[in-house]
């Protein structure tokens, strides 16, 4: 027994020495305070997988709005909590904080490629190209709005075919939003009954759930160990392969039909033309890998994020039927029957706009924000943060801050209305992180034409590629408004369960907050 105890002690001491000797545990700079990490475990005792975000919020009460934690023994992260800290970093020192941090569950697939997970010159080139290409394809312009309106009509017709029967709407909503991004990326719209399309959409949803699961949060802490062991990540990798195979099929189709003398039909065409132009440049970033990873990101992000927000907003209207009635009364009063909502109408629908904003605030779709990284050693609030330090900007801490939003866990669209009932902006409304939108649609300046189509206003402005803001923010806002208003104009929502039985708590909370599944009935109005 004594010998066994001695060997166990020696093993623990050996592991401790190895842990302290590994890179990433010694160079601390002058970092913010935080709980002392344990050998092998880091701050696992304070940060339970499955409740990582809540654990970080608890630590902020002790260590303040800027503190340091260790996800496992090797991964050091500086956490920013609250509007002031996040705004000071991502706004005041945007360039220094513009690097992309690690999402370990996706790192093996993306490996620093594509517009989301790249850094440095690769990121700058890909971001500028993608921004301008999507703008040229109509985003922020009337063409982009018409594309979304057309998909909204298809969605409404599909919902009519349910004949008021209860069903779980996740897949159909995700197919609608996926078709919008597919129209821009591939110039293709897929029927809702297309099996390959449904498989891709389901896989995209599985990716978002997978990277948010308790297992994924464990993997973020111990990826160096777990990547060599069998586990649930095999399912996630399979879903990534499904989305990638769908993307590869469409890219190959474009390669066969590309007209090098003509204008780009879509994003893939634009990328292939850029590749052809720079094929002699050995340092070009316009490569097959960057194309594939950019398309895969756009597919899974464009498929699930907006549809999840719409689904959560519909859940809120079931929970609060008086809100649904008020939205529909406003739509009837301002638009009347048969007039398709347009962005021009947003100013005339302040309560509807307030409901969408409050739903996004309450959901806090990306509560921890996407990880950032310091591109250079930076002084921040008296601390020295070494180059490469990862940063978690907790967006949920802003959206649910009781000092900014009174009773933040309550659903109250009135937060976004002034005393006269007009929509009012809130500087703490940051569901897409901090920064200006990559394409800011300008309100149309012309009057309605006889066909009910309003002439487009000035061309949209495009942000410079210095801040790592959400590429699709403008697209997401437009989709949310047009799809939501089209649904509420056409249907009254019902549910077999009483409102009190519906839960607003997320089914999964990690990188994303995923709402509970629920049945929905669409009764034609």
CATH superfamily: Cytochrome P450
Q: Fraction of residues in helices?
A: 40-55%
Helix/strand-derived category reads alpha+beta
Shape verdict: globular
Number of helices: 17
How many domain units?
Answer: 1
Widest sheet, order of strands? 1-2-7-4-3
Give helix and strand order, one letter per element, not per position: HHEEHEHHHHHHHHHHHHEEEEHEEHEEEE
Radius of gyration: 24 Å
- What profile does the largest beta sheet have? 5 strands, mixed
- What is the CA–CA distance across the termini? 78 Å
Mean pLDDT: 87
Indicate the proportion of strand residues: 5-15%
Which descriptors would you attach to this protein?
globular, 13 strands, iron, metal-binding, 17 helices, Cyt_P450_E_grp-I_CYP2A-like, 525 residues, 8% strand, 48% helix, two-stranded antiparallel sheet, heme, alpha+beta, five-stranded mixed beta sheet, heme binding, disordered N terminus, Cytochrome p450
Describe what you observe in this structure.
With 525 residues, the protein is an alpha+beta fold. The protein has one domain (33-444, 458-524): Cytochrome P450 (Cytochrome p450, Orthogonal Bundle). The chain is 48% helix and 8% strand. The protein has helices at residues 2-21, 52-63, 83-92, 104-110, 114-117, 120-136, 142-160, 170-185, 195-210, 214-226, 233-257, 267-277, 288-319, 321-334, 350-363, 395-399, 473-490, and strands at residues 66-71, 75-81, 99-100, 372-373, 378-380, 383-385, 390-394, 439-440, 461-462, 491-494, 508-509, 513-514, 521-524. The strands form five sheets. Strands 1-2-7-4-3 form a five-stranded mixed β-sheet. It is globular. It catalyses: an organic molecule + reduced [NADPH--hemoprotein reductase] + O2 = an alcohol + oxidized [NADPH--hemoprotein reductase] + H2O + H(+). It is found in: Endoplasmic reticulum membrane; Microsome membrane. This is Cytochrome P450.
């Amino acid at each position: 027994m004594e010998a066994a105890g001695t060997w166990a002690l020696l093993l623990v001491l050996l592991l401790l020495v190895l842990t302290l000797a590994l890179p990433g545990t010694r160079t601390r700079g002058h970092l913010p305070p935080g709980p002392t990490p344990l050998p092998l475990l880091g701050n696992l005792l304070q940060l339970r997988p499955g409740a990582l975000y809540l654990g970080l919020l608890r630590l902020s009460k002790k260590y303040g709005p800027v503190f340091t934690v260790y996800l496992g023994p090797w991964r050091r992260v500086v956490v920013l909590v609250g509007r002031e800290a996040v705004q000071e970093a991502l706004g005041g020192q945007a360039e220094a904080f513009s690097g992309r941090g690690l999402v370990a569950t996706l790192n093996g697939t993306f490996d620093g490629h594509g517009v989301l997970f790249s850094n440095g010159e690769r990121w700058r080139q890909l971001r500028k190209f993608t921004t301008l290409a999507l703008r040229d394809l109509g985003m922020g312009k009337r063409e982009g709005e018409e594309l979304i309106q057309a998909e909204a009509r298809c969605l409404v017709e599909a919902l009519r075919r349910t004949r008021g029967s209860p069903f779980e709407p996740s897949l159909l909503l995700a197919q609608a939003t996926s078709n919008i991004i597919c129209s821009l990326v591939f110039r293709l719209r897929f029927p809702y009954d297309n099996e390959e399309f449904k498989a891709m959409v389901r896989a995209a949803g599985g990716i978002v759930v997978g990277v948010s699961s308790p297992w994924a949060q464990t993997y973020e802490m111990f990826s160096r160990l777990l990547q060599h062991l069998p586990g649930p990540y095999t399912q996630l990798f399979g879903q990534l392969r499904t989305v990638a195979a769908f993307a590869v099929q469409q890219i190959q189709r474009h390669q066969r039909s590309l007209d090098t003398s003509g204008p780009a039909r879509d994003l893939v065409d634009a990328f292939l033309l850029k590749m052809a132009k720079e094929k002699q440049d050995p340092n070009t970033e316009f490569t097959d890998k960057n194309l594939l990873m950019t398309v895969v990101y756009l597919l899974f992000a464009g498929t699930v994020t907006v549809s999840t927000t719409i689904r959560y907003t519909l859940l809120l209207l079931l929970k609060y039927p008086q809100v649904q009635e008020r939205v529909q009364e406003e739509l009837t009063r301002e638009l009347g029957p048969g007039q398709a909502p347009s962005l021009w109408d947003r100013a005339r629908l302040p309560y509807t706009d307030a409901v969408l904003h409050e739903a996004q605030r309450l959901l806090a779709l990306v509560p921890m924000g996407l990880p950032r990284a310091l591109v250079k050693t930076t002084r921040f609030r008296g601390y020295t943060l070494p180059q490469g330090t990862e940063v978690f900007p907790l967006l949920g801490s802003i959206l649910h801050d009781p000092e900014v939003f009174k009773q933040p866990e309550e659903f109250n669209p009135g937060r976004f209305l002034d005393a006269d009932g007009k929509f009012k902006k809130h500087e703490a409304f940051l569901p897409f992180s901090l920064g200006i939108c990559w394409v800011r649609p300008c309100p149309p300046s012309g009057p309605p034409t006889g066909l009910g189509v309003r002439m487009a206003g000035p061309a949209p402005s495009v942000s410079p590629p210095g801040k790592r803001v959400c590429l699709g923010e403008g697209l997401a806002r437009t989709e949310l408004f047009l799809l939501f208003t089209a649904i509420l104009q056409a249907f009254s929502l019902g549910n077999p369960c009483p409102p009190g039985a519906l839960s607003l708590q997320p089914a999964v909370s990690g990188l994303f907050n995923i709402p509970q599944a629920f049945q929905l009935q669409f009764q034609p109005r």
